[in-house]
Amino acid sequence: MIGVFDSGVGGLSVFGEIIKLLPNESITYYADSANCPYGTKSKEEIILLCSDITHRLIEAGCTIITVACNTATSAAIAHLRSNFDLPFVGIEPAVKPAALKSRTGTVGVLATEGTLKSDSFNKTRELFAGNVRVISTVGAGLVELVERGETGTPAAEKLLRKYLEPMMSEGVDNLVLGCTHYPFLSDEIRKITGEAIQQINPAPAVAQQVQRLAERHGLLSSSDDKPEYQFISSDGTCVLARMAASIVGEKAKYTVRSLR
Ligand code: DGL
User: Fold this and answer.
1) Has domain 2-91+204-258 been given CATH number 3.40.50.1860?
2) Which of 60, 145, 218, 228 has its CA 20 to 30 A from that of 26?
3) Which residues line ligand 1 (CB under 6 A)?
4) What average pLDDT score do residues 117-127 get?
């Protein structure tokens, strides 16, 4: 069983890629919506929350865990790896491919405050994007908007314009979606930027890493049985259930429950 967690529903963008690549694997998805957003929390708080979620996922039978949250990865994955005896896969803003693809020499990164301030992001940026200009912007309010199921609304467009228009004036041609909630705003981003900006989402690469690591540890299911998906929320399940239904559809059996 693969465990996937996020501060909320955003990690479903990673879950969607994992089920495309590994359609026989059962998955437990944990949305910590009661504690969302993580982006403004301290590293210590995030480590405590992620450790608690990891215990729960192990109890649910998970043998490999995907931290489907950039903020949680940058704050807590090192701690999780040294304190739990199972493989973890994390997600980080994909600045390297953005820098490699850029023709204007200016790339944008939209992420949470926690991610942009983290050592891991700043090291990656120095290492792989030293030759381009990086415009980093905190997407304040975007995570909450997706959590409320308010994608496709005028409020979403207004907030996105505030973050994207300055990037467009600076000549950004590749935009890193540095938070797993943002792919759910992808169509609206495209509406604003047109084809002038290419969006970079590392979720497919994360799914490939889950596959590699699960294979290496002999954790993939050996049967062709249909997988089962379990969605757990530490808060209400209204938006989680709606999004899970649109991603899973009729493909598999699944349950959604709240811990509230
Ligand atoms: N999906 C999380 C991420 O990738 C959102 C963090 C938050 O809750 O602020 O960073």
Assistant:
1) yes
2) 145
3) 6-7, 10, 36-39, 69-71, 112, 115, 143, 179-181
4) 97
